[in-house]
Amino acid sequence: MNIDTSTDSDPGNAFTAHHAAETVARLRATFNTGRTKPLAWRKQQLQELRRLLTEQQDVFTEALHADLGKNATESYVMEIGFLVKEIDHTLRHLNRWTRPHRVWVPLALTPAHAWTVREPLGTVLIISPWNYPLNLALAPLIGALAAGNCVVLKPSEVAPATAAVLAHWLPRALDSEAVAVVEGGVPETTALLEQRFDHILYTGNGAVGRIVATAAARHLTPVTLELGGKSPAVVEPGADLAAAARRIAWGKFINAGQTCVAPDYVLAIGEAGAAIESHLTEAIREMYGADPARSGDYGRIINERHFDRLERLLEDGRTVTGGDHDRSTRYIAPTVLADVDPGSAVMSDEIFGPILPIVRVPDLDAAIAFINERDKPLALYAFTASRRSKRRLTSETSSGGLAFGVPTAHLTVPGLPFGGVGESGMGSYHGSHSLDTFSHTKSILDKPLKLDTLAVTYPPYTRRKDRILRRVM
Ligand code: NAD
Fold it and tell me: At the top level of CATH, which class does the domain 232-419 belong to?
């Protein structure tokens, strides 16, 4: 792997493999002191992070607006407020989640006690993307700190304002000997990936996910990969289609479609196909007005590269609504496309923008076949009044998450693990599942030496010992 950092705009400040090694060594030294292990330290870090999020709320909101044109309410609901809730949930349950767990001991081993304890992994790397640049950097950080780890956080260079705010504030608010923020792009991440970590959690696209997994394999480092994909929204004719359209429009066009769990396309069954077109048009109008370009609630595309990629997809079907775009402001209207060819570009890769194609299928069998012929999605949504359809979608398809009646909201249920399967990722986090991800569950057995009940298992073996062992095993 190339670790030359000469592409850095300021070679004097280049973050080289040497700096990466130094950073990891510093955090590892902290971890080895044992300072991060006590629950008191972990809780204090979480409380400090909470304080930072609430006290510097305006700074974070401004950064999110600068990067993505995010409305302040949206930033609160999807990022800042979400994180505060995740911290509160973690603080409330951390004692219970970290308690030793007693397990049953087989008769042949008695007297003895067995139990499990969670121990932190050590020094972990979190690599985050640009689309929810605060949430996707700090939600994994909450789990990693709660589990007692040291953390290197690499925010996305594609959302530079948020990355700068994180780099400035986190070392001031948290234990800077245990948490380091490394700003930068490919060279810096490459330099970090040369190092040995005890876990890597990466959120982003699958191509880079493969780079991360390859680099991690060299050190036998476990990885959590939070990837994306095309998440379908199945719509059945018997459902309340006006309500379904509002929910789909909300989940799709929030953050201008740049949401990993946004409905990527609508899979409309039978006569739902025609009806959903007009309901979606109406829902978009209700939410963003006649000209969404003038709505303060509608975001912008992150950069020109993504704008150009999305602009090409606008040609891939009949425009039901939207289609307007302006490169100078990186604006693309909420767009619905119908009569879309399943082989077209818009139906090939994850759209990750405000374009919603509608694909029509005759029945649920065809919808299930359509889903199963493709990569396993990060999320599957269905809008149906039929319990049988819900049961069939649950048992006959595979996806990271499955939600009926509402897109994206399953992320906000703290008890639900968030993660993908197959091409949409591996591993999961949120709530107690973050503890699972960032801890090792150690097995402990304690058998007193006094009563040597094991003598029967020692050689030389006799017929008597054999008889006893076969009975008690
Ligand atoms: P991105 O461009 O910000 O990249 C993500 C991270 O990878 C960044 O920190 C970046 O510096 C690093 N990176 C980029 N190229 C690299 C390379 N060659 N080597 C090492 N590191 C590199 O974000 P993105 O990938 O454009 O994010 C969008 C994708 O992420 C979409 O597919 C989306 O579905 C997915 N996503 C998934 C989730 C989830 O939780 N499952 C959440 C958000 C986004």
Answer: alpha beta
